[in-house]
Q: What sequence folds into this?
């Protein structure tokens, strides 16, 4: 570990700093921390607008009067000096500020340099791959754990596959399929991130290629995440549409890092739709959105239809839900598992991010450093935290 990095991070001012706290998901995460951060947890709010932070702190004080004195830290994601100071002040930095390809790199760089654990909500493959190439090596030297995708992208898939694998035989080839269903809406920030990622196809391919050149080869084992094809799934009784999201990449990176996934692991990720007309319409809508995202004026028009900072109201979120069903097989055994919860994009995502930050700050965890997944960095500890927080992990059947 670099001599310039404190060996004992407990000497830092804060255990957790939440950056981007006044955004839609940021405020929900702050509310969750106000209700659930353990006694003695030293946490703070950070963002570029001090007046907005002060108004948020007033709201939090109504939840917990102790929040009336919550520290407020002013920092702009584009101000390198402020971001370095922010990273050096805390053991864990959690950020909700996206699109991450525009606003996230400085925070990752600062955390890697300071030996600070980092968590975010990105679903952007290009960003994750670029951060691996640029900062994984340094984070390994300083002991920083850089954990991307700590929300609905990609905790249900990553920890769900991890939960499933642990119920299958060891030392044999394993196959897991995940089938995702939800009735939720999305926020303006989520739309902006998705459109940015969709509109950067060549850059995403280039970042993936650069990562493959830097990443050590997996010797004696194999971990794959093929896209799959649309099909009717007898296991779930629904139409399964391949999801080309970040989730399969995260799952296969967990599999590559952990021998428990066996010598040959394959994961496929699907949207699960009950009726064929909806499946066809959904496929067409995704294709049309992806095509429009390639045209900058069209991309701006779509983004302006639902501006960042806005999202579904509390009543709509209360009616929202998600379910990811997994079918795992290997060694002559087959298991059916499920991860489920409430509103995935906001309520549960805020919960997942907050619990990830608290887990890194307070729990006894396996040794890891560099860019790591939730399964690798936190595994059982985070699964147990989320179960206690109301997200269900269960075995539906085993044969």
A:
């Amino acid at each position: 570990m670099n001599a310039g990095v404190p060996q004992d991070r407990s000497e830092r001012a804060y255990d957790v700093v939440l950056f981007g706290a006044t955004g839609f998901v940021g405020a929900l995460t702050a509310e969750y921390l106000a209700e659930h951060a353990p006694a003695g947890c030293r946490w703070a709010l950070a963002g570029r607008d001090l007046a907005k932070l002060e108004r948020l702190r007033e709201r939090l004080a109504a939840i917990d009067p102790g929040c009336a004195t919550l520290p407020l830290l002013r920092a702009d994601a584009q101000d390198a000096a402020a971001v370095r100071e922010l990273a050096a002040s805390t053991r864990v930095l959690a950020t909700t500020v996206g699109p991450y390809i525009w606003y996230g790199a400085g925070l990752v760089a600062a955390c890697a340099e300071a030996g600070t654990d980092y968590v975010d909500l990105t679903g952007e493959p290009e960003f994750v791959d670029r951060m691996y190439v640029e900062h994984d090596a340094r984070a390994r030297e300083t002991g920083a754990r850089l954990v991307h995708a700590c929300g609905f992208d990609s905790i249900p898939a990553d920890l769900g596959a991890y939960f499933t694998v642990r119920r299958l035989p060891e030392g044999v080839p394993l196959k897991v399929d995940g089938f995702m269903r939800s009735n939720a809406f999305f926020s303006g920030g989520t739309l902006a991130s998705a459109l940015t990622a969709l509109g950067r196809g060549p850059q995403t391919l280039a970042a993936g290629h650069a990562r493959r050149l830097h990443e050590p080869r997996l010797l004696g084992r194999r971990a794959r995440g093929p896209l799959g094809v649309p099909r009717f799934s007898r296991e779930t009784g629904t139409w399964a549409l391949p999801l080309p999201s970040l989730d399969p990449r995260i799952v296969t990176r967990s599999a590559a890092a952990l021998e428990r996934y066996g010598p040959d692991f394959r994961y496929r990720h699907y949207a699960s739709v009950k009726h064929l007309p909806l499946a066809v319409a959904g496929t067409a809508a995704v294709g049309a959105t992806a095509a429009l995202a390639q045209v900058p004026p069209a991309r701006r028009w779509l983004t302006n239809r639902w501006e960042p900072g806005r999202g579904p109201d509390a009543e709509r979120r209360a009616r929202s839900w998600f379910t990811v069903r997994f079918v795992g097989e290997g060694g002559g055994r087959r298991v059916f598992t499920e991860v489920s919860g409430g509103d995935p994009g906001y309520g549960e995502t805020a919960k997942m991010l907050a619990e990830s930050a608290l887990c890194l700050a307070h729990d006894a965890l396996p040794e890891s450093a560099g860019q790591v997944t939730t399964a690798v960095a936190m595994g059982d500890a985070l699964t147990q935290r989320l179960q206690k927080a109301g997200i269900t992990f269960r075995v539906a059947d085993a044969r």
Remarks:
- The chain is about 45% helix and 20% strand.
- The longest helix spans residues 125-142.
- The radius of gyration is 20 Å.
